[in-house]
Fold each of these.
Amino acid sequence: MIPAPEALERLRAGNRRFVADARRRDASAGQARRAEVADGQEPFAIILGCADSRVPAEIVFDQGLGDLFVIRVAGNIVAPSQIGSVEFAAERYHTRLVVVLGHSRCGAVLATLEELQRPTERQSRNLRSIVDRVRPSVEALLQTKLRHDEEALVREAVRANVRVSAGQLRHGSDVLEQLIQEQGLVVVGAEYSLETGVVDFFDGV
Ligand SMILES: [Zn+2]
């Protein structure tokens, strides 16, 4: 079992390699590694990230097969199946670090802002279920002076959405709450910059 602080340091180091264009090419995803993990896994971090094609967790953290337990969904929202997936990995594999990974210019956050500013009837019920989960985090921001500054509004909305998801994981599950209190499980929030490639761990660290 890898303690949360060590897991976090591994992610930071991997992201530094990614940003420096110094990723460990094939070793972590080669045949030898595949054989090593075929019989079992011990992922050192659970990542709840956005489905955006530009933010694949394994690449931006420079990790290989068996390293990360990754859950991806548009807007890195927390619905019951996401909580269940985190519970599963934390209990079964004793993974002690959970990262909610949002990113700059997130399409799901932008769609929610759009919907709040100019409601439409056309949205499908399924897409609406995602927007509805992002909505509470951004609604409050529209009441502030941020609404006059589109760029700042999106930036803050992305972070607010990450904070809410991290909070829901910390407090929305008896299983996770117990692991946090008794087993050293840590939930942190982070934002990936599409522009620089840097992951900023800004919540819960
Ligand atoms: Zn996104």
Amino acid sequence: MSEPRVPFIPDNAPFTPEQRAWLNGLLAGIFSSAPAAVAEARPFLRVAVLYASQSGTAEGLARKLAKELKSQGHTPSISTLVGYTPAALAAESHALILASTYGDGDAPDGVQPFYEQLCFEHFPRMEKLSYAVFALGDKHYEHFCKFGVDLDTKLAALGANPLCRRVESDVDVDAPFAAWKTDVLAKLNDIAQGRTHKGPTPAASSAVQYPSPADKTEPAQTSQKAISRDSPLLAPLVERRALTQSLSAKVTLHLAFSIQGSGLRYESGDSCGVIPKNDQNLVADILQGLRFNGNEEVTLAKGPSTTLHDALTHHLVITRLSRKVVQEYATRGKCARLLELLAPGEQERLDQYVYDRGLIDLLTEFPGVIDDAAELVAILPKLTPRLYSISSSPIVHTGQLQLTVAVVRFQSHNRKRGGVCSTLLADRISIDDTLPIYIQPNKKFKLPSDPDAPMIMIGPGTGIAPFRAFLHERRALGHRGKNWLFFGSRSVESDYLYRDELEAMRADGHLTQLDTAFSRDQKDSIYVQDRMLENAPAFWRWLQEGASVYVCGDASRMAKDVHKTLCSVVEKQGAMQAEAAEEYVATLKSQHRYHRDVY
Ligand SMILES: Cc1cc2nc3c(=O)[nH]c(=O)nc-3n(C[C@H](O)[C@H](O)[C@H](O)COP(=O)(O)OP(=O)(O)OC[C@H]3O[C@@H](n4cnc5c(N)ncnc54)[C@H](O)[C@@H]3O)c2cc1C
Ligand SMILES: NC(=O)c1ccc[n+]([C@@H]2O[C@H](COP(=O)([O-])OP(=O)(O)OC[C@H]3O[C@@H](n4cnc5c(N)ncnc54)[C@H](OP(=O)(O)O)[C@@H]3O)[C@@H](O)[C@H]2O)c1
Ligand SMILES: Cc1cc2nc3c(=O)[nH]c(=O)nc-3n(C[C@H](O)[C@H](O)[C@H](O)COP(=O)(O)O)c2cc1C
């Protein structure tokens, strides 16, 4: 692309040489001092803005970016990577990608198929593509920004040209996003104006990492500071009651924290992060097993010095084992039986070994490996917050934040065990004790903006949580749209969470339809998706009337099965081929009428 040329008076124009020289001088002057005129002359770019987002942050930034590109005269297209194909990407010449990381360094929900296709062995090269990646993540996770990093690495390996260095942003996205945006816009404008683009400046790392608020040297907590994961609110627990009856094999709790006067704000559909701590009895057993007294000074990775007792209580995972922990421990102790499990081809046996064991089991089964507190701290991963879908509405349950928590308990290898956070909430704090909490917004899981739009909510087990909030909020806001809830649990007698509230809403018509599936009250399991099939004609009618569909709860099986059932309801009731039904469901998603909050 060449530099825009200054207009000039041709030699054969009817002017004297002096007049021509004077006019050419005038044109050159106007041209150099009129950026708008230059702008009109320059060829603008078509730019694909792509995002991989679970709770909406990356999507929100992508929309801002597209707006800004448009205001600068470019032609942006915006799309999620869910359902997007690498072939479509290869056909683009400029792409800006905003990608968050989930799970254990994974792609957000639904984006993995895109990445897998990109990794196919014979995937065509992408030399035509210039791109930039903004990776969103959280430094508290072991695999910081991993999906964004993987995507960037893969695109570079396929021959695509990086426009600028990848930015890896911690949860505080605003400043890093602004810096990255300025950089990419300048590069794109250079390209549009024909100035050569030289790619990112080589540096020690191919990425720019932005620090988390905790890394900054500011004083820790000021009264003005916004509540966040790094500066959580110490909220007092004001209510705890079992939603399950004592005959149930499992316990699910309703918990309320007071947030009165704290400045903590949330919206229904958001999640609450709880910063947990380990069980003191287990910490004591570990210290005793290792013959430490807990006062040993240790330094946490990228963190301050503290005592071993504090590190094991607040900062490190001691209840579960990962391959990495077993590897480090086995190598240090030359533990032959463990090394066997780590051999290639033995993953299944290793999975079985780690499934129901924790650090205490390694110490008991293979004693004498660790004699230095620092060594222990170095091999254990960081303890991370746990998220819970909020089950209250801020406008109905004012001054409170309520949760619905299933308590994880099990017994293995002669030890009673439990989930770190759910047992803390159940057993290890008393009413009026405080816990550090913060809000994890979920911009994608919100009430329909149209108050008259029908809503279908599918939430077995603790998946009921956000729907309780939605139902209360819709009533308080006077929304007249119809509400349909599918709820499932093990038994009507013992596990019907919020039964009174739900049945009262059904009785007074706020819940237009309530379908329950109690899986263990008969010989064959009945699940929420069976109720969807039984009600398929009505389900289809609601969809035709513009209903939004919401799913919350277990991701590993339930959400997948419900998705399949949704497709099959559409296929049969809409008399479509399977592919058309999938497209219909994909359209529901793109119209923001199919939302999932699954874990
Ligand atoms: C966005 C989001 C929303 C969520 N909302 C909710 C919610 O509303 N309510 C809710 O209850 N949870 C919710 N969760 C899950 C929650 O965050 C925690 O994962 C859950 O409470 C378990 O945490 P824990 O610390 O108690 O257990 P952990 O210490 O994390 O241990 C749990 C692990 O224990 C192991 N385990 C469990 N049972 C057994 C067994 N029988 N044998 C061997 N191993 C076992 C499994 O590896 C399991 O992953 C949500 C998660 C996310 C990501
Ligand atoms: N990853 C995490 O961090 C995390 C944390 C907590 C819970 N979970 C998952 O979330 C799930 C929900 O936990 P919960 O305590 O809220 O609910 P739950 O009581 O375990 O399950 C609720 C109901 O869903 C049923 N169900 C099981 N498989 C299903 C499927 N494929 N489709 C539809 N319904 C199905 C259950 O039936 P049956 O049990 O009778 O089969 C039960 O009736 C757990 O099973 C667990 O896998 C994950
Ligand atoms: C359950 C869960 C798991 C996460 N796992 C990681 C992770 O492994 N690595 C990471 O860097 N960030 C992780 N994050 C942080 C998110 O990537 C970060 O909050 C991001 O800003 C979310 O962007 P989104 O709203 O567009 O989905 C995780 C967040 C959640 C809620």
